[in-house]
Specification:
This protein is an alpha/beta fold and 311 residues long. It has one domain: Rossmann fold (3-Layer(aba) Sandwich), CATH 3.40.50.300. The protein is 42% helix and 6% strand. The chain has 15 helices and four strands. The relative contact order is 0.17.
């Protein structure tokens, strides 16, 4: 089989918004065992953080995952506060990002896990996230110093209108969906990159956790394996949501259990019209190409990455 050569990514731009300050990566000092969790958003990010925490800490109870695993490029708190806190961590670090690859500093020393989900499922979860955001959330993203670009406004009442605006505006009012997916897909063959899919985790969580452990070089203790699986279940995470959600859910009406909402796919089937769904599928094909669009829609494909084949 002919080896696929993928050039190492280079940072080519900065992204600033009501949420982003990508410049923090310019000052971040990598360690040899760092783990970076990449995702567009609302794609299983918190679930992946929980899984990795459980693997690192061998099934421990009551882990403060949100505190352990910060969103590095979120512009609040500012980088002069966030960077020293991350540098002070003594455990194996696992950091999340919502940036496309070309807005990151990419290190061959780190392991990168990117998790994706059908954009229609992302959108429905994103609408819940946005519609339940409270005044404290808006103050944090709009009123804290350093805002670049327009503030974010409350969403429309209709999820269908929200979907149309998000699709037509390529991620509006957040950030580009298609470039995020596309840039990570393009580096899937690098040896320190692994792709995950929300649907695969739903279908075979134990198998996917073992695959993650193999990629990260973490030996699974079979004695604590049942605890790891229990602590990564949706029911456990929902019941213990304050440990996994930023500030214990203080930014959302209903608290942390609003943030960890349903954990299901396909809610859009009975809401979006056939033409709306078809418009999304046509856009995915045009933006991503057939292989990536098929993976994004359904999960597992044979050509995803070396780590999948080796697991």
């Amino acid at each position: 089989m002919t080896a696929i050569t993928t050039p190492r990514p280079r940072k080519t731009r900065e992204l600033h918004s009501h949420h982003f300050d990508s410049t923090i990566w310019n000052d971040f000092t990598f360690r040899d065992d760092d783990i970076v969790i990449g995702t567009y958003a609302k794609s299983g990010t918190t679930w992946t953080q929980q899984i990795i925490a459980q693997l690192i800490f061998n099934g421990a109870e009551d882990l403060e995952v949100a505190e352990m695993s910060p969103w590095l490029d979120l512009r609040v708190p500012p980088k002069h506060i966030k960077l020293p806190a991350v540098e002070a961590q003594t455990h194996r670090r696992f950091i999340k990002t919502h940036l496309p690859v070309d807005a990151l500093v990419f290190s061959p020393r780190a392991k990168y896990i990117y998790i994706a989900r059908d954009g229609r499922d992302v959108l429905f979860s994103l609408f819940n996230h946005h519609a339940n955001a409270n005044a404290a959330w808006y103050a944090a993203v709009n009123d804290s110093p350093g805002l670049v670009g327009p503030p974010i406004a409350p969403p429309p009442a209709s999820v269908r209108q929200y979907f149309r605006e998000w699709l037509d505006g390529d991620g509006y009012p957040f950030w580009s969906f298609w470039e995020n997916i596309r840039t990570w897909w393009q580096i899937r063959h690098l040896p320190n990159v692994m792709l995950l899919h929300f649907a695969d985790l739903k279908a075979d969580m134990p198998g996917e956790i073992r695959r993650i452990a193999g990629f990260l070089g973490i030996a699974i203790d079979e004695v604590t394996w049942p605890a790891i699986l229990r602590h990564c279940s949706f029911d456990y995470m929902k019941a213990n949501a304050t440990k996994s959600v930023p500030l214990g859910g203080a930014f959302w009406d209903g608290g942390a259990q609003t943030f960890i909402h349903k954990g299901v796919n396909g809610r859009w089937h009975d809401v979006l019209s056939a033409s709306e769904s078809r418009a999304y599928e046509e856009r995915a094909l045009a933006e991503l190409g057939p292989d990536c669009a098929a993976w994004l829609a359904r999960g597992t494909v044979a050509a995803v990455s070396g780590p999948r084949d080796a697991a």
